[in-house]
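quick one before i forget lol
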Amino acid sequence: MTEVSHEDTNDMVVWSPVGEGPWPVVFAIPGSVGDAERDLTVLASELAAEGLLVIGTDVRTSPPAYTELDVECGYRYARQIAADYGGDVTLPVTMLGFSFGAFPATVYGLNGSQYGPEGIFTDCFSGVPRPDIVVTVAGCHLDALDQTNIYFNNTETAVVLVSGAKDTVCPATLHTPPMQTLLEERGFDVTAVEIPGADHGGLVFHDQQSWDELPTDDPGGQATVEAIVEAVNAAR
């Protein structure tokens, strides 16, 4: 794990596989506390063990303009530095959002006209292609559905919605179906993965109450890892 940052980003961290690569790149966004290391270290380390280079960013979760800066500038910078750590952006690039992070993953990851190479967002770096895959984990999708000005148009991006059957924070039955329906109506290829027995924190190897890290063989977390790896392999 390596800490990185740029004057135009928030604090960022890289979890690297063993070896030289090349590795597919995963850009990861944490939950509502906004701390990538806190939320994603175990998940990212397990993904790195599977041969994925994970670059996470801290985010300010309010006001929305700060979230936009932290996520989009972090994503652009992640693509810029990926090769320094063995990553290869010509392989499938994934934008991963956990809990609160599912909102910016979908809003920025799927909006090519706003944030792509020809997009109108010019606050940092140059516009870059949208990810090949957007994965949301324990997504609280109703926040995104309430934003009537969102324009999901990058339909080349595959979407995977990972949820836990026992999630009481963002219940799958409440949040996943309307997002899946909206995206499919707009032409996206969407896969919904519901993990039996997993609650909100368990999907990222955390005890929901204490937020202590769970063992790396925890079935809920490992099922999340498997879903992400399968999505990347399917996009190769």
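fyi Helices lie at 36-49, 64-81, 102-109, 112-115, 142-145, 172-185, 219-235.
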